[in-house]
Specification:
alpha+beta; Ribosomal Protein S5, domain 2; Alpha-Beta Plaits; 2 domains; 6-stranded mixed beta sheet; 4-stranded antiparallel beta sheet; 13 helices; globular; binds alpha-D-galactopyranose
Length: 399
C-alpha cells in the first residue's frame, strides 16, 4: 500500500468518510553545511523520495483530532486548548505524546500566525481531522519531523485559507518544533521539505532565507547518493545538540558578532587566542563548514557533483574532530565507503547517531553497500539500513 493510501485508509477508519484532501512533504538529507543553520550560515540539503502524507478533513465543530499509523490511539483536543498544551519554556514537556506535538504544534503556530494572516482567524474556527502515514525512517536523521510539519502545515494552510507561502510555512514548522516539541533546531529541515526540487539541492542562506536551487544532474553523471542509516537513534530535544548550540552562541559573543556567520576563516587565529579550546573547535567547525558550503556550490556549478567528494570528507572530519557529533557507527560507515572507492562520504543531520551519506559511482553502489555492511558486522554493530536517494520535490497536494 502506498503512503498516500495508508493515510486515506486511516482517515476513513477514523471518520467514516473521505478526507477533503491529501498533502505530503518529504524528509531530507543534507549534502553539506551541518549545524550552520542556527548560526545564520549556509546549508545545502535536498528533499528525498520518502514522504509523510496527511489526509485531512474539516469538521463541523472546533475540535482537532490527529491519528497516525505509528501510534496506538488518536489524540483529540479543542482548538482553544492548543495554547495550554505547549509551555513556552525550553525545558518543559508538552502535555501530549511527542508525535502528536508535531501536527498539533503546527496548528497552534498557524493559529498564532492568524493574528496577522488574512483568513486564519475566521478559518481556524473549523476543527479538523488529520490522519498521518509516513515512510520517512524515524530517528535516522532524515527529518521525519519536518515531513510531518510540512504535510500538516500545507494542509491547514489551504483548509484554513491562511495563504502563507512556502518559506512562511517552513517557519511555522520550525516554530512547532522549537516551541511545541521543545527541540532547539534551525530552519534547514523545514526549508528543504517545503522547497525541495527534483535533481537539485537547495542552497539556503539561513540569515536572509534566500534560497537558490543548484542542479545535481546525478543520473547524467552516472552517480548515486546512498543513505547509510546506522540505526543508532538520536534525539535533538535533549543533550548534545543543545550544548553545541550554546557553545556556538558563546563563541559568537566572545567574537562580538551576532552569529558565527559573521566570523571568517581569516578570523580563526584571533578567535583561538580569545576562547577555551573546546569553544574554539566548535567555532572552527562552523566557520570552515560555512566556507565548505560556498565551495561546494561553486564546485557543483563549475565542475559537477563528481568533484565535491573531498569537501564532503573534510566536512565529516570537522564534525568528528572539532564539533564532536559523530559516533563510531558513522565513522565506520564513512571510512568503509571511502575504502572501496566512494567519491565522498559524511554523516548528515544533527549527529549523535542517525545517517551518513556516500557519493558513489552508480555501478559501485552494491560494492559500497556490501563493504559498509561487512564493516558493521566486523565491529559488532547492528546491521545498517542502506538505500539510494534521488533529490526530489518538496511539499505538495497529492489528492
Ligand atoms: C537537525 C536540525 C537542523 C540542523 C541539523 C544540523 O537536523 O533540525 O536544524 O541544525 O540538525 O545541521
Amino acid at each position: 500500500m502506498t503512503t498516500q493510501d495508508a493515510a486515506a485508509r486511516l482517515f476513513h477508519d477514523l471518520t467514516g468518510h473521505a478526507p477533503d484532501g491529501i498533502w505530503s512533504a518529504p524528509g531530507r538529507v543534507n549534502l553539506i553545511g551541518e549545524h550552520t543553520d542556527y548560526n545564520d550560515g549556509f546549508v545545502l540539503p535536498f528533499a528525498i523520495p520518502h514522504r509523510t502524507c496527511a489526509a485531512v478533513g474539516i469538521r463541523s465543530d472546533d475540535r482537532i483530532r490527529v491519528a497516525s499509523t505509528f501510534a496506538d490511539a488518536p489524540v483529540e483536543v479543542s482548538l482553544d486548548e492548543l495554547p495550554s498544551l505547549f509551555p513556552t519554556t525550553a525545558e518543559a514537556q508538552p502535555a501530549v505524546a511527542e508525535w502528536a506535538a508535531y501536527p498539533l504544534g503546527v496548528a497552534w503556530a498557524l493559529q498564532l500566525a492568524g493574528a496577522t494572516a488574512h483568513g486564519v482567524e475566521h478559518g481556524a474556527q473549523h476543527g479538523v481531522d488529520i490522519a498521518i502515514a509516513s515512510d520517512v525512517p524515524v530517528g535516522a536523521g532524515l527529518s521525519s519531523s519536518a515531513a510531518i510539519e510540512g504535510a500538516t502545515a500545507s494542509a491547514l494552510n489551504e483548509l484554513w485559507t491562511a495563504g502563507l507561502d512556502r518559506t512562511a510555512l517552513a517557519g511555522i514548522g520550525r516554530r512547532a518544533e522549537n516551541e511545541a516539541v521543545g527541540a532547539p533546531t534551525g530552519i534547514m529541515d523545514q526549508m528543504a521539505s517545503m522547497l525541495g526540487e527534483a535533481d537539485a539541492a537547495l542552497f539556503l542562506d539561513c540569515r536572509s532565507l534566500e534560497a537558490q536551487t543548484v542542479g545535481l544532474s546525478m543520473a547524467e553523471a552516472g552517480l548515486a547518493i546512498l543513505v547509510i542509516d546506522t540505526r543508532v537513534s538520536h534525539a535533538h530535544s535533549t543533550g548534545g545538540y543543545r550544548e553545541r548550540r550554546a557553545s556556538c552562541e558563546l563563541g559568537a559573543r566572545i567574537m562580538g558578532v551576532p552569529a558565527l556567520r559573521d566570523v571568517s576563516v581569516d578570523d580563526l587565529p584571533r578567535a583561538q587566542g580569545l576562547m577555551d579550546d573546546v569553544t574554539f573547535r566548535r567555532v572552527r567547525h562552523i566557520v570552515t563548514e560555512n566556507q565548505r558550503v560556498l565551495d561546494t556550490v561553486q564546485t557543483l556549478r563549475e565542475s559537477g557533483a563528481r568533484a565535491i567528494g573531498d569537501l564532503l570528507v573534510a566536512s565529516h572530519v570537522s564534525m568528528r574532530d572539532d564539533f564532536e557529533i559523530s559516533v563510531a557507527e558513522l565513522d565506520t560507515a564513512v571510512q568503509a565507503a571511502l575504502d572501496v572507492g566512494a567519491l565522498g562520504a559524511r554523516m548528515t543531520g544533527g549527529g549523535f547517531g542517525g545517517a551518513a551519506i556516500a557519493l558513489v559511482e552508480q555501478h559501485a553502489a552494491p560494492t559500497v553497500t556490501d563493504a559498509v555492511t561487512a564493516a558493521f558486522t566486523a565491529s559488532g554493530f547492528t546491521a545498517p539500513h542502506i538505500f539510494p536517494v534521488t533529490p526530489s520535490a518538496g511539499a505538495a497536494r497529492d489528492a
